[in-house]
Amino acid sequence: MSSPLLHLERLHWSLSASGPDLLAGIDLKVQSGEFVGLIGPNGSGKTSLLRCAYRFSRPRAGRVLLDGEDIWLHPPRWLAQRVAVMLQEFPEDFGLSVSDVVAMGRTPHLGWLDADGDPAPVDQALRQLGLQDRAAQGFASLSGGEKQRVLLARALAQQPRLLILDEPTNHLDPRHQLALLQHLRGSGLGLLASFHDLNLAATFCDRLYLIEQGRIIAQGTPAEVLTEQCLAEVFGVHALVDRHPVGQHPRITWIRHA
After folding, report:
1. For residues 187 and 90, what is the distance between their CA atoms, to the nearest angstrom?
2. How many C-beta neighbours within 10 Å does residue 67 have?
3. Is 111 helix (H, G, I), strand (E, B) or coil?
4. With the CA atoms of 45, 17, 85 and 169 taken in that order, what torsion angle do they form, in degrees rounded to the nearest 10?
5. Collapsed DSSP state (helix, strand, coil) of residue 185
6. Burial (CB count <10 Å: 0-12, 13-18, 19+), residue 229
7. Which of 79, 172, 218, 226 is the most buried (most CB within 10 A)?
8. 14-73: pLDDT as tens digits
9. What Rg, from alpha-carbon coordinates, does the chain have?
10. In degrees rounded to 5, what are phi and psi of residue 59?
11. In sequence order, which ranges of the chain are alpha helices (DSSP H)?
């Protein structure tokens, strides 16, 4: 296998230099074009791990490598030209149109004297997400699912190699969840996303990392990670795991105790 696009190597992170490790010994890889899911209970460290991956939080020890290069040895602009991020919350729009928001993805590529830059990546992203007819519409007027599509278009206009997403399907109805994840699968990018919904993770991800109390405790294909024993031990809930009747991925049915 080729060297990974992203590699979190023996990573440790804490809130302060003297505080306890909230992430310990993390080793996580994402290959180019691979969709990797990060799962775990609430408070297990998913968001903290993602923040280290996109240079929001600096690890106490270990390295975050992008194409083999330590991201902390480069300026933020270098990373922004290669990595895009989609977070749970929608940004303030300040009266911006859909096109304006998508064009913000071009900012890392603009020079000091560039006013607007090349419009082609923005137009392409709008077309790819079916937003060309909404380009002049105010971002604030959109539904939650539509806003997520615009933010994905902004990330695609950024032309990254890696896209990091924190709970990308949060607050979306099933139709918009599936549409968003299908767009992600078709993007060709390396993808690292955290999930609460394990069935969505099983459906769309190539590999999963399971984190508990700041440590990776399981990794592999969805079938290798999402076992009944593992779910019972980590989430404290019994489940039936079988094969989805249409796809080849595992399907989880949670069992309610009488």
Report:
1. 21
2. 14
3. coil
4. 20
5. helix
6. exposed
7. 226
8. 998 888 999 999 999 999 999 999 999 999 999 999 999 999 999 999 999 999 999 999
9. 19
10. -70, 150
11. 46-53, 76-80, 98-103, 120-128, 144-157, 174-185, 198-204, 222-225, 228-235
Residues 6+ apart with CB under 8 A from 252: 198, 199, 202, 226, 231, 239, 240, 241
Q: Which residue has tokens 């903290």?
A: 48
Task: Give me the pLDDT at residue 8, please.
Answer: 98
Q: Residue 180: what residue type?
A: L
What's the pLDDT at 117?
67
Domain ranges of the chain: 6-226
> In this structure, are residues 144 and 172 in contact, taking their beta carbons and an 8 Å threshold?
yes
Q: Whole-angstrom Cα distance, residue 156 to residue 218? A: 30
Rounded to an integer, what distance in angstroms lies between the CA atom of residue 4 and that of residue 88?
26
- Mean pLDDT of the 158-162 span: 96
Distance between CA atoms of residues 26 and 39, nearest Å: 14
CA angle 55, 61, 66 (to 5 degrees): 40
- Domain covering 6-226 in this structure, CATH number: 3.40.50.300
Distance between CA atoms of residues 46 and 38, nearest Å:
7
Tens digit of each residue's pLDDT (9 = 90 or more) over 60-97: 999 999 999 999 999 999 999 999 999 877 777 778 99
Residue 224: its H or E element: helix 222-225
Distance CA 100, CA 189 (A): 23
pTM: 0.92
pLDDT tens-digit readout, 237-253:
999 999 999 988 999 99
For residue 153, the SS3 value is helix
Give the mean pLDDT of 129-140: 92
With contact defined as beta carbons under 8 Å apart, do 136 and 98 qualify? yes
Residue corresponding to tokens 């240079």: 55
